[in-house]
Amino acid sequence: MNHNPENSQQAVALIKFFTKKEHYLAFKNGSALFRPPHFYRKHDDKGRGDRSESCLGYWDKGLGDEMPNLVIDGSPIGNMDAQSILIYPAHEQQDSWLQSWSVMGPHNRFEYSLERMLQEFGTYFVVLPATKIRAYAKLLAEASCSKVRFGLVQYSDEPLKRSLTVKDSDFCYQKEFRFFVGECPKDEVQEKTLHLKGLSKMLLEASSLQLKSPSGETRWCSLGHPRVAIDGGACVTKATS
To answer: Residue 164 CB: number of other CB atoms within 10 A?
Structure first.
């Protein structure tokens, strides 16, 4: 993974969205939720759900899936009795609890994803300056007593490249950046909540968000409101109180 996020895509900051105000407030108070990839494989919400999350494929009869016909070295594998099938890369035997953010930068076109992000992930958000990413990861390591990794998600149209750090190209608008805590089994369903001391001091006090593209177009929104306004302006990215 990329462990130099301050230079990745010239990141200015990371942003994390919340659907409910209480979850937003809980995070600001230091309660950080991490979920296993299997949560997202079984999730149907647009933008969040991904049957190929950290795997090559997942099928579940309980979710209405038709079981695939599996063949290895020319020989079919019987799976008629299987309730679910999970296929994952041989080099990735374990998953990790993960937390997703998005990268905001002057050249990654996140401003054009803003409205969709508000619709799919919620209208409450927190902003973490890129210069605080390592400090945030240190807080996670101290609270979890586990190894912490972080970096940009890559996107590909090739199904065989799916992993913890590679997603389908359909998700590229999310400009995702992930923090991983520890390791968990591929079928783990229990989430993990970490209590982080001093987190609020790392976050920007942002009640509105203003994103300005190189063309001079400005898109902005306010905390808790779904609408995105568009006007003109200079090329900067900032959060305002």
So the answer is: 21
Residue 18's beta-bridge partner residues?
124
Interval 12-67: pLDDT, tens: 999 999 999 999 999 999 999 999 999 999 988 888 999 999 999 999 988 888 88
The pairs formed by 188-192 with CB atoms below 8 angstroms and a separation of 24 or more are 188/36, 188/38, 188/95, 188/97, 189/36, 189/38, 189/39, 189/42, 190/36, 191/33, 191/34, 191/35, 191/36, 191/39, 191/97, 192/33, 192/34, 192/35, 192/97, 192/144
List, for residues 78-115, the tens digit of each pLDDT value. 666 788 899 998 899 999 999 999 999 888 999 999 99
Residue 148 bridge partners (DSSP) = 181
Distance separating alpha carbons of residues 103 and 132, to the nearest angstrom: 13
pLDDT-derived band at 232 (thresholds 50, 70, 90) equals: low
SS (H, E, C) 168-185: EHHHHHHCEEEEEEEEEC
Q: What band does 235 get if pLDDT is binned at 50, 70 and 90?
A: very low
Residue whose C-alpha is closest to residue 236's, from 213, 204, 205: 213
Distance CA 77, CA 139 (A): 46
CA distances 93 to 46, 113, 141, Å, are 27, 33, 22
Nearest Cα to Cα of residue 204 among 238, 174, 227: 238
pTM metric for this prediction:
0.87
